[in-house]
Request: fold
Amino acid sequence: MPGPTVTVEVAFNSGPYVASPTWTDITSDVREISIRRGRGDDFEQFDTGTAQLVLDNRARKYDPFYTSGTYYLKLTPRRQIRIRGTTNGVTYDVFRGYVAGWPVTWSDAGYDSTVTIQAFDALGLMANEVLPTDWPDFYTRSLSPVRYWKCNDARTSNTITDQAGVGTALNQTLGSGNTLYEVPALAEGLPSTGLFSSGGGSSSAQVTSTTDQRTQSLAFWFNIVTTGGIDETEARLIYWSNGMYYRFIYNKSGDSLVKLDISNRTNTRIYTFYNITRAQPAHLAFAVTPNAGGIPSATIYLNGTVITPTSVTSASGSGVTTEYILTGSLVTQEIAVFDYALSATQVAQIYNAGTARFSETTTARMNRLIGTTSFPAGLQSFTASPAATVAEIGTGTGVIPEMQLVADSEGGEIYVSKAGVLTTTNRTDVWTATRSATSQATFTDSGTGLKYGTDVSIELDGDNLKNDVTIQFSGDGEVYASNAAVIAAYGAAATTIETQLADPTSAQQLALMELGVEGSLVPRISPIDVSVNTGASDWQTILGLELLDRVTFKRTPSVGNQFSQDALINAIEHQIVPGVWNTQLTLSMRYTTPLICDDDIFGTVDFNYCG
Reply:
C-alpha cells in the first residue's frame, strides 16, 4: 500500500495574522521536506516547531528578484505555509507556520536552481514580540482617554504634558513661584517618577462645550507627602471641562477629611469619605453620570474597588465653560479623563496595571498577553480549566517567554499544534484529557498493533529525575518539597521553577505535584521509527497523532517477559521526499502509569520496573 500523499500550500496573498487565508498549492515543485515539532525530554519546554522544504526553482518561480516570476512581490518573509498528508481519502494537518525567507541557490553550472525554505510555527512568529514596558500606559490608551497626564515629565520642564493626542493638548504649566518636584513612583507598575507641585498651577485653556450635563470619568494615582519643606494643610486636584467641575481635596489636618466635589453650572454634589491613609499611595477613579434631577452623581472607586461615601451633600453649581487642570501639594501620576463612564472592570484594570499585579487565572493571563499582539483568535486554544492563579506580570519582556512562565505557573504546557494553533494545557490534562489519558495507538515489535523499526534502546538513569523542588512565586517568595526516600536511594537532584503564582499555598501545591511527577525514576526510550507501516489505515492513525497524545509501546525480548508501557508523545518528526514518507516519534513515560511486572526489583521506592 502506498504511503501518504503530501500537499504543500502557501498563502501568497495574506500576511501572518490571517487565520483563514487563501492557499496556493506548490506541491509539484517540492523536492524534499523535513519537519520537527516537540521537545527533546520531559524537563524542556516545547520548542518552536520547524520545517525545511527544498523547492525546484529552475523556472525562477520562487526567486523574489525575478520581476517576471509567478509570485513576484509575494515572496516576502512570514508568508504562511501549510503541509498536510492524505491517506485513505482523509487529509491531516502536519505543519502550519511561516516562511523565514526565500534564499535562491544555483548549482550544476547554473542548470539547476533551488530555494530552501526555513519555516517556523507561531512560537517563532512571536519570538520578537515584547510586552508593554508601561502597562498603565498600555491600558489607559486602550480605553481612549480624552485627556492623559502621565506626570512623568522632567522637573526642568515646569509643564505637565497632556499625552492623550485628542484635539488640542491641555498642558498644565505651573503658576509663578511654584516648584515642580520629581518623586518616586506611587506604585510598582507606574513610570519611575511622579510629580509634586508646591502650589497651584494654571493651564493653556480653550473654550469647550457649555453643556451642563455630561457623562465623564476621571482616574489618577495620588499621595500626600512632605517634599522640599512643603506640607500645606490642603492638597487638591481640580479639573474644569465642558461645564463640569471636579475638585478632589485632601485636608491634612484633623481627621484627614477627603472630599470630592462634582458640579455642573447649576448643582454640586459633595462626597465625603475617610478611608485614605496619609502617605499611603492610592488610586482614585470616579464615573459621573447625569440624572433627571439635574444634580450629577458619581460612582467612586478607591484602589480599584467601589466605595460608599461617608456622606453626600448638595450645593449650588460651580461649572465653567473653559477647560483647566490644576494641582496643588499633591503627588500625582496617570491622571486620565474619559468622555464616558468607566466600568468597574475598566477601573480595576487601570488599578491593577499600576500595581503590576493582575490576580487572575493562567488562562486569563494568557489571553491578556496574547492581546498585546496581533496573533489571530482563530489560532488560539487556551485551556478552559486552569488550576492556578497568577499575580505579578512582566514588563518589557518577550511575550513567548512570559507565556512559558505562565505555563510553568499552571504546571501545564504550551505548544503549537500541527494545525498551527497556539495551545495550552492545564496541570491535570496529561492524566485527564481524553487523548492524553487514553492510548491512541499501540506500537509493537510483534503481534497486533502498529509496528516500529527494530532499532530501539531503553535505559534507566538518574539524569531523568528531580527529587528536590523549589517553586518561586510572586513577591520573591519560595517554597520547597523533596522526597527523602528517593534522595537516599539515588542522591539529590534539585530543580528550581520560576512562576508568577499568587500565593505560597498555590506554590506548595505545584511543588508537590512536580515532585510527584519528576521524583519518580522512569525508563527512557530512544525515538522510534513508525514508517515501517504500509497500510493506509495505519497511516491514518499515525498522521492523526498529536503532541502529548498517549500511545502504548511494547517490546518483546527473546528471553523473559514483554516490556509494555504507555507513553506520551514529546516530539514528532517527518522526512518526506516524493514517494517516501518517514515518521519518527519521541516518547515520554513520565506522565503515564508505572510499569507493572511480577518483580519489584527496587524495593522501597514508589514505582515498579520490569527487569
Q: What stands out?
A: The two ends are 38 Å apart (CA to CA). Residues 200-207, 227-232, 594-611 have pLDDT under 50 and may be disordered.
